[in-house]
Give the backbone structure.
Amino acid sequence: MIDANMNGWEAGVRKVVPYTPGEQPKNKNIIKLNTNENPYGPSNEALKALEGMDMDEARRYPDPTASELVKALADYYSVDENQVFVGVGSDDVLGMCFMTFFNQTNERGERLPILFPDITYSFYPVWADMLGIPYETKALKDDFTIDAADYNGPNGGIVIPNPNAPTAIYMAKAFVEDIVKNNPSSIVIIDEAYIDFAPQGSSVIDLIDKYDNLIVVRTYSKSRSMAGLRIGYAISNPKIIKFINDVKYSYNSYTMNAPSIKLGAAVVKDEEYFRETISKIVKTREEFAEKIKGLGFTVLPSSANFVFASPPEGYTAEELFEECKKRGIYVRYFKQPRINNFLRITIGKEQDMRTVYEFFKDFLTR
Amino acid sequence: MIDANMNGWEAGVRKVVPYTPGEQPKNKNIIKLNTNENPYGPSNEALKALEGMDMDEARRYPDPTASELVKALADYYSVDENQVFVGVGSDDVLGMCFMTFFNQTNERGERLPILFPDITYSFYPVWADMLGIPYETKALKDDFTIDAADYNGPNGGIVIPNPNAPTAIYMAKAFVEDIVKNNPSSIVIIDEAYIDFAPQGSSVIDLIDKYDNLIVVRTYSKSRSMAGLRIGYAISNPKIIKFINDVKYSYNSYTMNAPSIKLGAAVVKDEEYFRETISKIVKTREEFAEKIKGLGFTVLPSSANFVFASPPEGYTAEELFEECKKRGIYVRYFKQPRINNFLRITIGKEQDMRTVYEFFKDFLTR
């Protein structure tokens, strides 16, 4: 990480290979299905909260505890306020958790590797590298599901997204619980960024009082349609939340700005709109998956707001990715082993997905 | 930092003593002079920008490069866009700089300590502890000024605020330049959070092209009246900015949310209002300092939006702090060696400072 062969101040620079986020093109006419944003806007409560903001809130420091937002989330999940940590998107929350908990050593003082799947959110290895945390990836099975047996050995912590990304595949709650139960000496982070698009009752939030080593991480960027406000949170027991908050207060006391606290607290009150948009996305997802299967695509079973799909024989995901881009359709392509013939396609509005389908159909039957 | 005597996952927890920010009381009737906020609201451009926001900006991920904000700052300071780094307040910017640059070792592979004054922004040692960076503090002289000779030895980096906090004392530009020049193998961070309240021409921003080891850090929380939006920035050469950005993208790709980008870019366009509010604060500061000197206070020469003042003999800063609080006047008191008989008093509106003065007068002549 640190290059000792350099002279002067450059020798002390932490050199890293940064994460590459999906493109954020400035042209608004494209069909943007590359960063798993929600095609529907946030609840009207967000707009009302924005309109209700006064400039005195801009002038003053925000509440460092973000208590208005924390309270709204605690009420929503029926937990105590000291069981909620909020951050600048779930990336900040996950980064803080890595920094706080992944410093385990064995009896010889050697750092223990943390574990996560070989195919998963590509930020996990980036945080590990940046923070000097050793890690081991565990290969998904051939059907892209997780093998629970892989997570039974000694480790310095475990991170698993449920549903996993970019596969979109979901694990049953009992399966997740087994991993948590089998690792009482490790912090287990379940990254539920996409769980609201999975069958209801899939979340392990209700297990946080049963196991003292479980952290559930969530985001406003997908199901809550508020990627632009940068809000993520963790739900866990008070002890764990205090440890994360201590590290957070040692880095930046005021991470959540006034608009994020205010809009974040406002939208959780609108359950009806939340359920309605999720239902629409799930319905569109199922229809789209069926239709492209009809064109010969392989589509992994999705419990998220995107599908992971491989084109029929004779075509490559990479060429399709490039062709889509030419037509103003942005999807995500990962040029990496095992998944380099898949596209990750965010579920947009019905009309967007019809356009994508029509394009695929035209292209495959030229 | 890591406690190896614990069992289970707790052994791997990064245990820290977090920074304690000034209180953010929820009662709006108090006179809040404890966190160096600007008493005047932000430019009207902020409100216009907020009103111009649409919910599609809340829905989408923000631009990870925050280019609208970066461009506005680059234009304002006549530097290139690749010479500007933006973060979630200057705390985030400083934390990222500590993480990126303060990893220097000597020829035996031992970490070199970073240097900063013994009396200074209390977050510096907190970041160092959190990140495992060794540090040495250099005692301010008896008159609370910095001794430049202290910053000539081998070191792993230097951080100096100008004006310093909580002393409010400002160093001449040539003095700062000497420190930068004498340490070509170290990154020197000049934390100019309060520089806009110092005489014009005091900033070292114009030296960034002359020295390759200089980083100037600024904030929107004081002179720009936007503490609630959490915006800070660093100005340096493109190489340094790229190193910081690489680490930032390895931690959180999208740190600046849509409102902070938009409002931050908007307010720098209103130079007139900016100059006007600064003039008012400087005028009020000078008047207030003179008046409390008349009551027997010792007041350090201030080039910031606060004064650092010690009560006349027979009174302690601590009792004055408590008495102020009882009357709804919040100021800041640091119970630490050398400065435990001083109060840091933010400069509010003229009326606020009159109230504080009257209270001091009453209290001292009971």
In short: The longest strand of chain A covers residues 214-219. Chain A touches chain B through 91 residues (CB under 8 Å). DSSP finds eleven helices and twelve strands in chain A.
